[in-house]
């Protein structure tokens, strides 16, 4: 019986490419997302921030210093400032943060777009042109400077792609994730059928009983929570929540997640996880 369950899970568990195929290619670039789609990822994860002139761009940190050849806060820069930067070279230089073990991705300076700043709009186009269903897990970062505006822009953009009003959350190819319950609340107020994911770094006492903030369907615990509180994951499942775990790169953690029946594994190495799942 256990084998049958495990086998079923291997096919039910979604593999989500965290920041794209970010182990192989520079995170949040078109290069990384193209690779993730090639690798067979079921979904792509990205973080979004607003530029000073109101564009949503896919950048994790508050500043561009770590992942580009520029300096400064995304929220203080215009899209044209960001477009002048290279978001790929740091990965080939082999910095401590992003050392490449297998050079699966080759930095080609002539392919400017592959390592330019990635707008969410361009990522939505990439997904639309993928030729198969590729889901998108969009994380709103929540700089106080732009309270409310990130969600507003996000929903406008999703609307343009016909993605803001799925018939039901189950059918939606897009979901919105955040560590901020307020951010998710704003999304649901404007787009009630869009699924939301509440991200958790630690289990707060308020959440121990396996309930999530009102209206949230999906829990997004860190792998550290899964390792230290597997019973909490079971409680979430019993309460009818889906569980999407980040960031799962170790094969033993993949096994742990499968054993607990998690619904999505968010990983920097989608190809390796799919291999482990026999897919
Ligand atoms: O997928 C959620 C995960 O990405 C949250 O943490 O810091 O990588 O955005 P972070
Ligand atoms: Ca993220």
TrEMBL record:
Family annotation (InterPro entries): GP_PDE_dom, PLC-like_Pdiesterase_TIM-brl
PROSITE patterns: GP_PDE (PS51704)
Domain named GP-PDE: residues: 13-277
Superkingdom of origin: Bacteria
Protein name per Swiss-Prot or TrEMBL: Glycerophosphodiester phosphodiesterase
Source organism: Streptomyces thermocarboxydovorans
Organism lineage: Bacteria, Bacillati, Actinomycetota, Actinomycetes, Kitasatosporales
């Amino acid at each position: 019986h256990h084998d049958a369950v495990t086998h079923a899970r291997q096919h039910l568990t979604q593999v989500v490419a965290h920041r794209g195929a970010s182990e192989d290619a520079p995170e949040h670039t078109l290069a990384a997302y193209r690779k993730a789609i090639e690798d067979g990822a079921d979904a792509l994860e990205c973080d979004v921030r607003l530029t000073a002139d109101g564009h949503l761009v896919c950048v994790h940190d508050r500043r561009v210093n770590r992942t580009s050849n520029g300096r400064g806060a995304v929220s203080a820069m215009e899209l044209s400032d960001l477009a002048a930067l290279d978001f790929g070279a740091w990965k080939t230089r082999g910095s401590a943060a992003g050392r490449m073990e297998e050079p699966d991705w080759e930095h080609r300076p002539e392919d400017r777009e592959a390592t330019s700043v990635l707008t969410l709009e361009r990522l939505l186009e990439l997904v639309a042109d993928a030729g198969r269903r590729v889901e998108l897990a969009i994380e709103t970062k929540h700089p106080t400077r732009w309270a409310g505006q990130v969600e507003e822009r996000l929903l406008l953009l999703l609307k343009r792609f016909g993605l803001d009003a799925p018939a039901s959350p189950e059918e939606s190819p897009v979901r919105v994730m955040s560590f901020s319950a307020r951010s998710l609340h704003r999304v649901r107020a404007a787009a009630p059928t869009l699924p939301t994911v509440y991200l958790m770094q630690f289990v707060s006492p308020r959440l121990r009983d396996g309930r999530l903030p009102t209206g949230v369907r999906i829990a997004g615990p860190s792998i550290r929570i899964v390792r230290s509180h597997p019973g909490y994951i079971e409680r979430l499942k019993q309460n009818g929540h889906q569980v999407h775990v980040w960031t799962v790169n170790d094969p033993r953690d993949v096994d742990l997640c499968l054993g607990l029946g998690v619904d999505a594994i968010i990983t920097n190495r989608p190809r390796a996880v799919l291999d482990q799942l026999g897919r």
